[in-house]
């Protein structure tokens, strides 16, 4: 294909970025943009993170940045990464060119180098091994990444089996990038991932979860998850995900689209699991999800019931109510306005019941709950109606207390 230079993009004019490149010596060939920023700019999509590569040693990078007044954080010094902070607080990772010395599938020991091709050779996919000169925009492509971008093909650099042996997480990354950028899967890469799926068992569950949640919201997530199930990728670490789960995910994705609601990774994970809170709790713990995400996952697989959507939102919050409705067969009309709905507050306090003569303690709590349930059942009426409900409840309590 015809080689191109890096197109103009908003991120390239970010305040302080030109100065950072100047300090690193871009004019002398000592700095290049690398990875996702180059890839995504070539594809014409928004860039989230900007990374720079340099043959300069990490200590020299630190010295140059600090001497120029840049905040520089040695975020991964052993692997050559310094985070430079631009004037507005935006981070740019600056990493010294590296080559792998040894790998065990989870960690790598690296040595620094001044060879750009060596640095490119240790990256995972050809589309992630693209570099660009900050001044001229010249693209440096050592392994056909531009051709693979044009073909919508996620392809390992070198032997896929060897690359997976170096870092087992590349199995999940292959599918995540395919879900985002791919059309037909690369045959050799797919075969290698299927053959080495058991390697995922050696990874921390946090790393697996981090890749999975990104994959599940990618544009082609449904198609790719189905491919992963068919090839047995999930079996070693998440055997609960099967063909029935793919069917539920397919339905959920269609309902999200019809309702114009953005996909959510935890909601989609819930669709992949059997409708059993105990299984959801086990998977959430296994993946070491946050407490909030675990609660959301468990809630999402609970039966929906037939309560009005506003009542569900009041009881559990709008996010959980939306999850449950989308994962059920309830009409999508039930979601109308729910995302913008503000739950009302019960216009009654326990102190108001005490003023009416109710004993402090359990009696107040019970009566307050009874009034609240009646208020919910009547569709959240105004304070005047709540006062009437409370008066009636206190009268009944007084009668029963005689």
DSSP summary, beta strand count: 9
The level of helicity is 40-55%
Task: Tell me the fraction of residues in β-strands, as a range.
Answer: 5-15%
* Run of helices and strands: HEHEHEEEEEHEEHHHHHHHHHHHHHHH
> Main sheet?
7 strands, mixed
Number of separate helices: 19
- Globally, the shape reads elongated
Report how far apart the termini are.
91 Å
Structural category is: alpha+beta
- Rg of Cα set: 28 Å
Unreliably modeled segments: none
Mean pLDDT: 94
What's the arrangement of secondary structure elements?
Layout: H1 17-24, E1 32-34, H2 36-43, E2 50-54, H3 58-67, E3 71-76, E4 81-85, E5 91-96, E6 98-103, E7 108-112, H4 116-121, E8 130-132, E9 139-141, H5 145-150, H6 160-166, H7 170-181, H8 187-195, H9 205-216, H10 221-230, H11 243-258, H12 265-272, H13 277-286, H14 291-300, H15 309-316, H16 318-327, H17 350-355, H18 362-377, H19 383-401
Parallel strand pairs: 2-5
Antiparallel strand pairs: 1-2, 1-8, 3-4, 4-5, 6-7, 8-9
Helix pairs in contact: 7-8, 7-9, 7-10, 9-12, 10-11, 11-12, 12-14, 13-14, 15-16, 18-19
Characterise the protein shown here:
The strands form 2 sheets. A 7-stranded mixed β-sheet has the order 3-4-5-2-1-8-9. The protein has a two-stranded antiparallel ribbon with strand order 6-7. The mean pLDDT is 94. A hairpin with a 4-residue loop joins strand 3 and strand 4. 48% of the residues lie in helices and 10% in strands. Helix 7 (170-181) crosses helix 10. With 402 residues, it is α+β, with helices and mostly antiparallel strands.
Q: Which key phrases capture this entry?
A:
402 residues; alpha+beta; two-stranded antiparallel sheet; 48% helix
